[in-house]
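Lab channel / #folding
Pinned by the channel admin:
"Please post every new chain as: sequence first, then the structure tokens as a reply. Keep commentary short and put observations after the output so the thread stays searchable."

First post following the new format, from NK:
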Amino acid sequence: IAAKHMSILEIAIISKVIPKSFFILKRELLWIPIYGWAFWRCGMLGVNRARGKTNLKQLASAVEQRVLDGYTLVIFPEGTRCKDGKLGRFKKGTFVIANMAQATIIPVTIDGSYDILPKGCKCLHWSPVTLTFHAPVECKGRDSENVDRMMEETRVAIASALKNK
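Reply from TO:
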């Protein structure tokens, strides 16, 4: 699953809709009081971004094991929550990994969560949230030259269901 990341609430929303899901997040988040414990208990994988490729093999092995155990990997291709509610630039890593694994990417738009709890805000506001599951982006049979195309197909799908494009 590749989803838009506007609020910390998306993790709870996706976990509720897709019970056997897990996320990759920066390791530092596991040290935040209460949240870090909850992330760890939910089986989130922490990645040390400073170690780069050194950590990649270990991460790939952990992801593979979870997927073989029937879990769904959820990635936020922007790499972080947006600051203004708009769709940001996607990072290639999600799509390089999906292409290497010849996996199927399911773009998901989560619209409305930013209005409930924007980045930096400490109080909740009521707002409806809409999840849109888009047509899969297939990686099978594509070579590495198609990574940019898969990234753009996913981005266009996610943007198509956002109110604030």
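NK: DSSP finds six helices and eight strands in the chain.
TO: also worth noting, The longest helix spans residues 53-68.
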